[in-house]
């Protein structure tokens, strides 16, 4: 192995700084607001995040919710959200990128070629993050503290994307204070989940590393598979096939599919559980909750062709099904075993539901002896 190859690092494959700057440049402008309005909105979101904590504790009955008030909450704009995600992606993808370098045949990339390659992938990732940055209302990031030079606490950080929350509440013409609290109930639930299951961050990171390494590790086949996936997406662009997306088409062998199945089940649980908490509130807490639910659920039915294409490419519609499938699982378990029975999922990785159990809660209840 020559000197140049030993110096080549995984980060050379993606220019993360360029990804963040590209996303900031391409992200659509947020709603027009004066500095005073922005400051008030930030204070309101922080207050909503704080107020939601005891309600999450009451609904979930997880003692971990008691210690959330002092953990990390950031109210961010779209560019800051994108930058935060480049930091987390760098953590999650490093093992896979290392595998790509190790498995690459022939001489190592020259510094010029590596810089060019990193710029291309960085720009592409930035374009994706720019699109997503205008869609996400909030996000709990459990991996933030693992990034180099990160200032995030070990427990992770909660990001509330202010321009998107404000855009949606204006679009739906709903009460801002009610809507912000409703959103924070969902996002704070994710923080409770990882606080209640401190092993969950490591477990998910290992599964993500396993899937990404399997998917990206063989650099000799990834381009052929990506080309085939893109062709598949193009051929069905007039109407996406339920449950499929170009990225999912990259998966071929049983190990890859098993990894994705497990991650799908876990994400369905996390999102469904948070949605159940969000929907457990009544008008005594969020007076206009019925109006918010109705109008929020109607969103997205009139998306344009381009947005539908991008959502299919990124698998976002599959993610929306996770909310529904996971919520059905949580409600079915609670109906039989109560919230205490459901909370057994946070005890160990062995108690997490499989994808089959997500779709048939009786299987999980039987396995748990409930």
TrEMBL record:
<dbReference type="GO" id="GO:0016787">
    <property type="term" value="F:hydrolase activity"/>
</dbReference>
<dbReference type="InterPro" id="IPR022454">
    <property type="entry name" value="CHP03883_F420-assoc"/>
</dbReference>
<dbReference type="Pfam" id="PF10103">
    <property type="entry name" value="Zincin_2"/>
</dbReference>
<keyword id="KW-0378">Hydrolase</keyword>
<dbReference type="InterPro" id="IPR018766">
    <property type="entry name" value="Zinicin_2"/>
</dbReference>
<protein>
    <submittedName>
        <fullName>Hydrolase</fullName>
    </submittedName>
</protein>
<dbReference type="InterPro" id="IPR042271">
    <property type="entry name" value="Zinicin_2_N"/>
</dbReference>
